[in-house]
Amino acid sequence: MHKNRIGAYLFSFPSFFLTMALGIYPVVWALRYMFFDYQGFGTPKFIGLENFARVGRDAEFWHSVLNTFIYAGGKLIITLPLSLILAVILNRKLRGRHAFRAIFFLPTIFSASVMSIVFYIVFNSYNGIINQYLMKLNIVSAPVDWLGAVHAMTTIVIIAVWGAVGNYMLLFIAGLQNIPEDVYEAASLDGVNPVQRMWYITIPMLGPVLQMIIMLAITTSLKGYESIMVLTEGGPFGKTEVMYLYLYKLFFPLTTSGTSVQNIGYGSAVGFTTAVIVGIVTWLYFWMSKKLNNVY
């Protein structure tokens, strides 16, 4: 028994060490500098709550918060229904359904950076594939600036949907396979049409899985920034600047962002504020889910 306990400790030590080194320590390190004026060199200067006061006055940060909610809302509104519809279709006994599942899931295994570079070529204003086809079909008469001020947010939402839909589709399929087939057979005998079947049977019986998927979708959407960083770096004119990209630039200034100096003290305060915002949204979702559970 004693040897088994020692073995368990030895096996769990690598996970414990990595969690402490890569998860806990960076958070504690950042929390420490929230109250300091520190650019990564020299002696940190204690300034109390001044960094948080600056966060309150920082219009650029709050604009990035607004952009984050627009980006996350657009992604969720499209991704979740589309994933569910695809899951319902590909959960049926269709020829080639496993191949189609693999095709839809494929984007989730690509690196966000690689995927974004490919889409940068596709949506390029001057020689991108999308513009070439649209002009060949006479849908547009001149190239559309897909990453310009007017269309940039829509373009990055489309790319985000493409990258996420396969992942949520598989989770929905796992949930659908737990619904007894007898329920659908009884509904068919009662003359239930496909829309009623989806609304009154499939969605309610997916309840627990649906709650989990929505929670994952909300948190990942609020934290997403990699594709945006590669495609637009938050531009043009801050139209696609989201919270985590703004935070990233404070710790690791981008070459074209106009800022070349780290701001670790202020970045830590922004990071804490960002975490609080994501935490509040997640808590609100849990609170609403609990209320809905009590109703139904």
From TrEMBL:
Where in the cell?
A: Cell membrane
* PROSITE patterns reported for this sequence: ABC_TM1 (PS50928)
Is the keyword Cell membrane in the record? yes
Positions of the ABC transmembrane type-1 domain: 65-285
| Membrane topology per record | Multi-pass membrane protein
Q: Name one GO cellular component term.
A: plasma membrane
The family annotation for this protein states: Belongs to the binding-protein-dependent transport system permease family.
UniProt name for this protein: Sugar ABC transporter permease
Task: Please name the taxonomic classification of the source.
Answer: Bacteria, Bacillati, Bacillota, Bacilli, Bacillales
